[in-house]
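Quick check before the chapter quiz. The format below is the same one you will see on the exam, so make sure you can read both the input and the output lines.
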Amino acid sequence: MRAVKGRDTKPEMWVRRYLFAHGFRYRLNVRCLPGKPDIVLKKYKTVVFVNGCFWHGHEDCQLYRLPQTNVDFWKAKIERNRARDLKDEILLRSMGWHVIVIWECELRTKVKREQTLASLAYTLNHIYLLNHGAKPYADQESSFSIAAEDPAG
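Here is the expected output.
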C-alpha cells in the first residue's frame, strides 16, 4: 500500500495540465477546505476532485472491484471513503462552492479524456458567466439598437 499515491496521480496530472494549458489558474490541495480538494479554482468558486474508481467506490465501473481477500475490511473501507466524500461535498456546497468530481475511468482512453476535459472547461466557463451576472440569451431583450440610434425611435 505504500506505493499508492494520494496526490500527483496520472489522472490528476492530465486534468491539471489541461486546465493550465487552457488558461485556468488554480491551487492544489487547499487544506482549509473540507476534503482538501485536488484542484481549487477560486475565481470560479469551484473545486475539482479527481477520484480513483477503486478507492472511492465508483458504482457500475469496471475499475471498481473488491479484492478477493479480506472482503469485509475493504467493503468497510470503501464505504467510509464514500461517506467522507459525501460529507465533504455537502460542506463545500453549503459554503457556496461548486463541486466537480472526475472519475479515473473518464480519463482512461484518449477520446474519453478529451471529451471529459472539454466538458470540464465548458462547465467552468458556464459557472463563471453565471457567477458574474451574465444573462442567458433567452432572457435578453429581443430588440437591439445601435449606439448612435435613438432607442425611442
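If your answer matched, good. The chain has one domain: 10-128.
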